[in-house]
């Protein structure tokens, strides 16, 4: 089965670890060239050393909230690979409190990281994506569809990302550019593994992932590769007629479609 990645150039923000790094691995194995982006050079270098055996990969050390971050990252991709076909906006983090406990600065920081950085990246990438009828994939969270108590400001930032995805898909479809989102639920990550080590160090991962998960219909925490596989499909030519959608990757936990 041909996913159509051979020779294509992909940039993934927030990709030194977790879902971003795993997605880079899956796409490299399918023939893509990948530019990793994150703030920490040590983690990026470690990721590159692991991934380079699978294909052509490099990295940019960059805080995506910087004023010229989009231009700097895209320029690095074009200089290295000569093209840009796929942009994956994955930068973000977990910051969730009650409305009363979140101050104005926290709101601004969260929006800058999760929404405005994706705007900057997409604007900088657009001229190149128009040339290739490229793809934009925005990572959000199931909280963006189903905000719960104590999920501010992240649920609002993620909801805004979903609205942006849908509107962009309608604006950019005329150029053949597809814009989709994935809504991440409880997926294995460094953060989840830290909780595992702190709360249940005597459990195996399989035990921890399945214990007390009655709120997840599939009964377990998702694996990183399971999220990466969905992203890889949505950005591939196999999904050539899919745009403007937001796919839940949550084991069925969300109440929304």
TrEMBL record:
GO terms for molecular function: oxidoreductase activity. The lineage of its organism: Bacteria, Bacillati, Bacillota, Bacilli, Bacillales. SUPFAM superfamilies: NAD(P)-binding Rossmann-fold domains (SSF51735). InterPro entries: KR_dom, NAD(P)-bd_dom_sf, SDR, SDR_fam. Belongs to the short-chain dehydrogenases/reductases (SDR) family. GO terms for biological process: bile acid metabolic process. Keywords: Oxidoreductase. It comes from Lacicoccus alkaliphilus DSM 16010. Residues 8-190 form the Ketoreductase domain. This is NAD(P)-dependent dehydrogenase, short-chain alcohol dehydrogenase family.
